[in-house]
Amino acid sequence: MTKLSSKVAVVTGASKGIGAGIAKALAREGAAVVVNYASSKAGADAVVADITSAGGQAIAVQGDVSKASEAQGVIEAAVKQFGRLDVLVNNSGIYEFAAIEEVTEDHYRRQFDVNVLGILLATQAAVKHLGEGASIVNVSSAITHVHTPTAAVYAGTKGAVNAISGVLANELAPRKIRVNVVSPGFVVTEGTHTAGVVGSEMETGLVAQTPLGRAGQPDDIATVVAFLASDDAGWLTGENITASGGIR
């Protein structure tokens, strides 16, 4: 019996990177998974194909979780397809680095809309379907305490995620819905390649600060999320697990 057998999970922002790794890990543990994407249909379809070819259940559902109607549509698609909802992983996020002199209103709003408002809207849509024993896992970042230069706005969004998660853990506890956070350190993904972090001095510096001496991989985060989503973590809520190779 796998840890998430008979469970249904929605993973936002799951077409690539950490989100794709999480979707696959939940499916390996027996969950039926909704692979949400905002724009990369091909990426989401590839994740679904990987899951189904391994014998799992998954569908791809488009939706920008920073828009209320689309966040609701993602959740409703999960319930329509699989009949229930047990796990929500709020993974959707974007990051842009800028020195304080270069921060603009658009730079701020893009990141706060997806990284913060998106979590609120997806959770708002999900809670009406989540029952006793359900799990919400929010993906934050170790950057909130590493304090990387040029990441003021991104780090601010993740600090907000941490605070929101603590509030929701208390707010939803009477309904026996757990809310926890995973805060990854530096992880090699399509996004960190595109952002120019992989192979840069920033990567060198981050790895140098990491006691285990390497960059993370999506599976390093995904296995922690799968644990928090499962009944094995049934006594955990309001926790923030830093999955970073020891970076502090």
From TrEMBL:
- InterPro entries, per the entry: NAD(P)-bd_dom_sf, Sc_DH/Rdtase_CS, SDR_fam
Q: Which Gene Ontology molecular-function terms are recorded?
A: glucose 1-dehydrogenase [NAD(P)+] activity
- EC number(s) recorded for this UniProt protein: 1.1.1.47
Q: What class of enzyme is it?
A: oxidoreductase
Q: Keyword annotations for this protein?
A: Oxidoreductase
Pfam families, alphabetized: adh_short_C2
Could you tell me the superkingdom of the organism this chain comes from?
Bacteria
Q: Which family does it belong to?
A: Belongs to the short-chain dehydrogenases/reductases (SDR) family.
Q: What is this protein called?
A: Glucose 1-dehydrogenase
Q: Which organism does this sequence originate in? A: Methylobacterium komagatae
Which taxonomic lineage is given here? Bacteria, Pseudomonadati, Pseudomonadota, Alphaproteobacteria, Hyphomicrobiales
